[in-house]
Amino acid sequence: MMTASSSKSKSLHSQVGRDIVPAYPSPSYLTCPNVERTKDSCDSVHNVTYVHQKGNSNSNVGILYCPGFQSSLWGSKSRAIWDWCTARGLECTCIAFDSHQDDNEDVPTIGRWKQDTINVLNEITQSPRQIMVGSSMGVWLLILAALTGPNRIAGLLGIAAAPDFTTDLSKQISANTTLTAQMNKQGVCDFPTVYHESGYYRIHNEFLQEATKHFILSPRSLKAEAMPSLTFLKDVPVLFIHGKHDLDISYERSLALIDRIHSNKSYDATILVSDGDHRLSRPQDLELICHSLDHICNQLLL
């Protein structure tokens, strides 16, 4: 386990395009079939938002970035990773997960976003192997996608990893009488958060229940199915970054993932940011993310 200080003043991200402000491309859309349709009136397909840039022809490794729950396509981390890839001529693909749900539409689920990730990996990315970079929920989705195609995974960088985060949501809703009453009556509640402009996340009970099918750290639903093995990741570079002041998802979650991958709690693959929060979006955090990508690429001899 390593500890990172926030005292570094020079930001690798800030050096990328220092003289020229980079122009970020407009999103593209991949049409995907809906999985587990819950309403007869809904469409059979939906659009997955992504951006993609090709890498140099001599590179056989790309970067696939998945953000956190209800994060925007061009957040600070996706911009930093995009700039880092551009400066090195590497392929880069960033996904945004649509969490909006109208009355006549399906509730977006972990299962759907998992399949979206798999579809983008298979249909949009071009390099034979991908370094998967995930933030918060994105780490969970990338690991689920990697389970279906481990041969394409060149490495994994997890930022404030939040696998099975719906267990935390369920517990907090159950502990709040107002939210519990709202959920019981309507099947949905407005969960307070500082991360959304509305001041809340709209959480559907269907979303929480469906997520139990995809747990990778927690016991799986009522059937107590065995959790999937993550040891396939021990053969590729894996690194996790987590803030010690993360009040949303404890850094113990990242340590638990390393334990599941390597079966060795002493394995040194976690950087704990002493004053870091869940977002890890400050300039020094973005610098650390870029340096971590450099580290993984050096291990791959890129």
Give a description of the structure.
The structure is a single chain. This protein is α/β, with parallel strands linked by helices. The protein contains nine helices and eleven strands. It has helices spanning 12-15, 76-88, 110-123, 137-148, 166-174, 177-186, 205-211, 252-262, 283-299, and strands spanning 2-4, 28-33, 45-53, 61-66, 91-96, 129-135, 153-159, 188-192, 200-204, 238-243, 270-273. The strands form two sheets. It has a nine-stranded mixed beta sheet, with helices on both faces. A two-stranded antiparallel sheet has the order 8-9. Helix 4 links the parallel strand 6 (129-135) and strand 7 (153-159). The two termini are 25 Å apart.
Quick gist of this model?
This protein has 302 residues and is of the alpha/beta class. The protein is built from 9 helices and 11 strands.
Instruction: Please work out how many helical segments DSSP would assign.
Output: 9
What is the helix content? 25-40%
Cα(first) to Cα(last) distance is 25 Å
Which quaternary structure do these chains form?
A: single chain
Q: What is the β-strand count?
A: 11
Order of helices and strands: EHEEEHEHEHEHHEEHEHEH
User: Spatial order of the strands in the main sheet?
Assistant: 1-11-10-7-6-4-5-3-2
- CA radius of gyration: 19 Å
Mean pLDDT: 86
Structural class based on helices, strands and sheet pairing: alpha/beta
Search tags:
302 residues, alpha/beta, two-stranded antiparallel ribbon, 11 strands, 32% helix, 21% strand
Question: Topology of this protein?
Answer:
Elements: E1 2-4, H1 12-15, E2 28-33, E3 45-53, E4 61-66, H2 76-88, E5 91-96, H3 110-123, E6 129-135, H4 137-148, E7 153-159, H5 166-174, H6 177-186, E8 188-192, E9 200-204, H7 205-211, E10 238-243, H8 252-262, E11 270-273, H9 283-299
Parallel strand pairs: 1-11, 4-5, 4-6, 6-7, 7-10, 10-11
Antiparallel strand pairs: 2-3, 3-5, 8-9
